[in-house]
Amino acid sequence: MLTVDFDRLGLRPGDRVLDMGCGAGRHAFEMYRRGGDVVAFDMDADELAKVRDLFTAMKEAGEVPEGAEADVKEGDALQLPFADGEFDRIVAAEVLEHIWADVDAIKELVRVLRPGGTLAISVPRWLPEVVNWKLSSDYHNAEGGHIRIYTDHELVDKVTKAGRPNDGTPGDAMVFEGKDYAHGLHTPYWWIKCAVGVTNDEHPLAKAYHKLLVWEIMKQPTALKVAGKVLDPLIGKSMVLYFRKPETADSRAAGADV
Question: What is the pLDDT along the chain (258 residues), one digit of tens a residue?
Fold first, then answer.
């Protein structure tokens, strides 16, 4: 169940790509399938072990192009263990809403992105998330839960300013290139869960809707695909923002020399 549109991100075979806060690895796996040189980054060692195992299984099964590479790295989003400008593409999917010092995390993403590289950030969309918070405090008060609700304007502002120097000298801001919405079919499920109890998986309505979502993911029936396309712009649970890091004079000159 992907949130990011990798065609829109501009992912190409051989790109050095980072999945920051990869969790179970869904985006990292897709980038690997597309021929990326992937680093799946997270602070959960157990999750990363599972991601590494699946990377290995994918390669052994011939699911990735020749030359594609993938690895995992454990660490802190506020101190990424990578060089400046190391990555061509970066994905940070459904992670910033969990981080108190989100601006510091964003600055790190911008730092490790190369000039001319692209960044996709997804977070819960404002309206569906507000409804969830209103219906249930347990939804966001759980350990490791969501600590803020973003508007698109707030997040665009934080990211576009993240590349500017702290000393006030001129610097190129990140360029906002557009937004999408995803997982419109999933929003009613979470409204139901918040209304009946987020841990009440056996409630008949929650159970029935969960079966519908499993059917959508596993079988991808045409009717639900159409329903999703209609609901995504209206109540899509996730908002995805796309950015590009401006090229510098040095990076343009290097490109011209290639």
Answer: 899 999 999 999 999 999 999 999 999 999 999 999 999 999 999 999 999 999 999 999 999 999 999 999 999 999 999 999 999 999 999 999 999 999 999 999 999 999 999 999 999 999 999 999 999 999 988 888 899 999 999 999 999 998 666 544 445 689 999 999 999 999 999 999 999 999 999 999 999 999 999 999 999 999 999 999 999 999 999 999 999 999 876 655 555 454
| Domain-wise residue ranges, the chain | 6-125+146-183+238-247
Q: Tokens 């040189």 label which residue?
A: 37
Starting at the edge strand that comes first in sequence, how are the strands of the sheet with 69-74 ordered?
69-74, 37-42, 16-20, 87-93, 113-124, 238-244, 175-182
| Fold category of 6-125+146-183+238-247 in CATH | Rossmann fold (3.40.50)
